[in-house]
Design a protein that fits this description.
The chain is mainly β. The protein folds into 2 domains: 112 residues, Immunoglobulin-like, CATH 2.60.40.2990; 108 residues, no CATH class. 5% of the residues lie in helices and 47% in strands. The strands form 3 sheets. Strands 1, 2, 3, 4, 5, 6, 7 and 8 form an 8-stranded mixed beta sheet that branches. Strands 9, 12, 13, 15 and 16 form a 5-stranded mixed beta sheet that branches. The radius of gyration is 28 Å and the shape is elongated.
Amino acid sequence: MHRFRKTSGLASGVLALALVAAACAPYDATTEAVIEPVGADASVRGTITYRERIALSPDAVVTVQLRDTSYADAAAVLIDEQIISNPGQVPIDFNLRYASDEIDNRNTYSVSAVITEGDGRMAFTNDTAYDVITRGNPRRVDMTLVMVEPPPELAPEGWSPTDPERVEAPVHVTDVEMLWESRTTSQSEGYVLVFFAASRQEDCYHRGREDVTREGNRYEVTVTALVPAELPWAQDCSELDLELDAVVYIGEVASDETVEVTVNGEHEYSFTAP
């Protein structure tokens, strides 16, 4: 559904007849709006999706808006709105119409989206600005929404919307090497090169900590990642199809000295400085 401007005279009569026809027609989420905003000759198109593994119910409603967001201290002017009932599953297509002669190239225009479930719960919304039309921005945007509140039946006991979306976890180590850089004839600087596997899926891997503690000639190296918390709707990051590495500096080591290196508390190696 789109919002329309008021018209008068013959245009009002045509509009009324069209609205009656639209009201009598069965709803189809894939059908374009019967009436376009007055003077509309251009559009912003795109898709809406989200990363969580949660299905939308038949009672879900998607609201997509195109607004003039040029002024932070003033209400954003609504240009067009599309409301999609029973949208099916993501990705969801949208099409927002506007009159190109009313666009000011100096202004900023943005698209926002909200998915509301049948129980009144705001399920998803965008936390990223999707600017369009002017200032070199596109007229097509593929939006990725973030979850606001999950279905009550999926939320674990004690879960809160303020809980972190990612948690720190040790990386999956595949190999370890030592790199030496000579400083003097009797000393070298050591660097532990840790190879590890991660998921190529978007948002499955974020860099965590890379640090080291020392006790005598023993070095405990820690390499972690920030990964999605283990929740029923979390992304599936189990396929480790991306190889990465981290370099951790351990300091100066005397020539011919052997160091014992443990990575993430379980991978043990011995290296001798040149």
